[in-house]
Amino acid sequence: MFDTLSDRLEGVFAGLRSKGRLTDADIDATAREIRIALLEADVALPVVKAFISGMKERSKGAAVSQALNPAQQVIKIVNDELVDILGGETRRLRFAKTAPTVIMLAGLQGAGKTTLAGKLSKWLKGQGHSPMLVASDLQRPNAVTQLQVVGQQAGVEVYAPEPGNGVGDPVAVARESIDVARRKMHDVVIVDTAGRLGVDADMMQQAIDIREAVQPDEVLFVIDAMIGQDAITTAEAFRDGVGFTGVVLSKLDGDARGGAALSVRHVTGQPIMFASTGEKLDDFDVFHPERMASRILGMGDMLTLIEQAQQTFDEEEAERMAEKVASGNKFTLDDFLEQMMAVRRMGPLTNLLGMLPGAGQIKDQIAGIDEKDLDRTQAIIRGMTPAERQDPKMINGSRRSRIARGSGVTVTEVNNLVTRFFEARKMMAQMTGNMGFGKPGRGAS
Ligand code: GDP
Hints:
Elements: H1 3-16, H2 24-40, H3 45-61, H4 70-85, E1 101-106, H5 113-126, E2 131-136, H6 143-154, E3 157-159, H7 170-183, E4 188-193, H8 201-214, E5 218-224, H9 230-240, E6 246-250, H10 259-268, E7 272-276, E8 284-286, H11 289-296, H12 302-312, H13 315-326, H14 333-345, H15 349-354, H16 363-368, H17 371-382, H18 386-390, H19 397-407, H20 411-432
Parallel strand pairs: 1-4, 1-5, 2-3, 2-4, 5-6, 6-7
Antiparallel strand pairs: 7-8
Helix pairs in contact: 1-2, 1-4, 2-3, 3-4, 4-11, 5-6, 7-8, 9-10, 17-19, 19-20
This protein binds guanosine-5'-diphosphate.
Residues 107, 109-115, 195, 250-251, 253, 276-279, 283 line the site of guanosine-5'-diphosphate.
């Protein structure tokens, strides 16, 4: 799910990586590309419009943060907008004050209601509840048996009409089930209802009658995420017909483009509460808008990284550092150490690099990074006197031997570090273009 959309968005962000600053024209161009990407993913037009205008609003309001480069800024904006479109906060199940809590499932035939009944009951059981399943789908042949099978797999009681006894009145079954649950001390009742292949007046009326009979605390509308644009008309029909309090996305493991999943919350105004991702009872979880957004962005944990950078990054400190870098030889080994520690505070370097998009392609190099090398570099710098760190040029042969002995490394390692430091300082000064104190090459000798 969402692969095409993820790929398209990744392309949009890649185009921004080379930019130094984000202009209004960049934002407009990016918005256009994202609009196309969403439409191609089958996202409903009103949702696309809301998304783009939300995105533009955010880019206007966004304080220009020096902690983030343009690509990161756009990723953050798109992410925040995605989270919003998907519902913002995670919406948890609401339990009734007096047991049993009644959860009614509604949706088309094949949407995944019966499977969901099993998944939800297993999940609830795992949370210490004692759910009971109710077979009010008397429409589809085998629906009752199917519910009994999932109930057995989940280790949960199933209330169903005796074969040949009262068969045919799903409303009565649902009504009776509440008393049965109360008597048997079940604290949650999950009522599986009948769907049809398409929206149909009889089906909707039956769902309404069941709802009236059991007065559910939650009506969950189950929707197959694979069905594309049709999903929206179906969702609207259920919203206007039986009404619902939450959405369950099923078959998110499929390879459809995911437009329905992205549209349903905005179109119906009801939160997505759970996601089903396979045929097994455990392929199920609470729906978290944030996690889904970062999955769609294919950013691995890029967003975590961006947030960590924002937290670790002190803008004033960065400016002070930039000035030092620009001035050539004002950048000392103390600064170098400080910078290195700031980066390492964000976590192990391998994790940090692993969070970057495209990290998969350089995983061998990442695996080759040895934190111990960084520890040694830090140890060497700590083995220097404050005067040496401030003015590394004074580190002559005998000082190098002393530093090596003190920090438990070889003289070659100290030499390498000092050489690398001078090279880096020279390069940084040249890159900033503003030489300030130092003339090219001066700080490096
Ligand atoms: P109902 O008619 O709404 O009760 O739908 P079912 O629960 O019978 O599901 C219809 C079909 O979809 C069954 O073959 C299920 O195994 C399958 N199914 C349900 N949920 C999922 C899911 O999340 N992923 C996949 N791959 N299949 C699912």
